[in-house]
Amino acid sequence: AADIRAFLNGASPPPDGLALDPDLRWLLWLALAATGHVDAADLDGELTRDNTGSGRTAHLRALAARPDADVKAAAWTAVLTDRTLSNEHLDATIAGFRAGGRRDLTARYDTEYFAAIRGVWGERSIEIARRIVVGLFPDCDTVALADGWLDAHTDAPGALRRLVLEQRDHLARDLRARLFNAAV
User: Fold this and answer.
1) pLDDT, tens digit, for every residue of 130-157?
2) Distance (Å, rounded) from C-alpha 67 to C-alpha 105?
3) 75 and which of 18, 54, 97, 103 could share a cystine (Cβ 3.0–4.6 Å)?
4) Distance from first CA to last CA of the chain, Å, rounded?
5) What is the CA 80 to chain-centroid distance, rounded?
6) What backbone phi and psi angles, to 5 degrees, belong to 136?
């Protein structure tokens, strides 16, 4: 992390042949953010350097990626309530929320997710609702919450049920793969 920060900040040259274009810079800042090696001020500094549309989107993703309970709570709230987020900014906030795979920070939202999706589906545009339903689907250790929601919401709109069923199936495959890999 220190070496990456050093060449991002210009304190040392990057490895030979590595061109630090804005996309690569943001990927590196995202990795540092997700692992807790930067703060908002660092990311704001990079935004000053790359204050473009893609830079602002990457900035949102990196801000939401920081491994802090308050940061995750703010990202969760923004995704569900901030109607000003563009499609790209919504996706970036969701990706940041999910970054790092920190279940210790995101597991508390599993039940809230299933409590919220019916309302999201009814209140938001189809495209925004789809992005939220798919993007925030919990990475649980079981499909029980999804099965419970599906059993309790047989009257939910067909498209919403289909998305939940698809995400549930993705999770079930992932859980089988984890079990297989643990046995190998």
Assistant:
1) 999 999 999 999 999 999 999 999 999 9
2) 7
3) 97
4) 32
5) 13
6) -95, 5
Please say whether the beta carbons of 146 and 171 come within 8 A: yes
Q: Contact, 65 vs 99, CB < 8 A? A: yes
Domain ranges of the chain: 1-101, 104-184
pTM, two decimals, is: 0.93
- State the burial class of residue 124 (Cβ atoms within 10 Å of its Cβ: 0-12, 13-18, 19+): middle
Please check whether residue 70 is in contact with residue 122, taking contact to mean a CB–CB distance below 8 angstroms.
Answer: no
Q: Give 11-62 as a 3 state SS string.
A: CCCCCCCCCCCHHHHHHHHHHHHHCCCCCHHHHHHHHHHCCCHHHHHHHHHH
How many Å apart are CA 19 and CA 171, to the nearest integer? 37
